[in-house]
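Tutorial handout. Part one gives the primary structure; part two gives the three-dimensional structure as tokens.
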Amino acid sequence: LAGGMKNINGWNVGAFFGDQAFYKGDWLMRAGAAKGGLYGNNATEATYPYTRTDGSGQTLDTGKRNYTLTFPAGKLPPVNAFWSVTMYDGKSQLLIKNPINRYLINSPMLSAMKKNADGSLTLYIQKDSPGKAKEANWLPAPDDTVYLVMRLYWPKATAPSILPAGSGSWQPPAVVASK
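Part two.
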């Protein structure tokens, strides 16, 4: 992919602008970029895998299918700060209104979420509730296409790690169509 991005399990992973050397000491440029919301963080500060497809390359369409994203036991995103998975409307690229006002699932929500018997964590990405027992792990979706952004703040520098971005020992799991 362009810009040093790699496709890993359907996720686009990489560093758009490299490390601190990219700015060549021009902190005014970096401050302006950060204010504008553009490439303010380098990969060692935050990495942003994103996807519009499931692991098999099919467009994410929650109007036609339900999806799951399962982190194996002990393999949550390896970060020093926090992580999140945010869903956006595939056409407008805006957050999606939903009955429980949930626009992302993130690491601070872990204590309320339900893990599977084997210790893994499954997120349910679908328009209809997966049932009361699984609602803590539900990311409500529209009747349309979506895309997902994983935000990994202050990724761990030692294994397991997503760093170097796109080549690290930790990889985001594939989004799986479940229906």
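Part three, for discussion. The radius of gyration is 17 Å. The chain has a mean pLDDT of 89.
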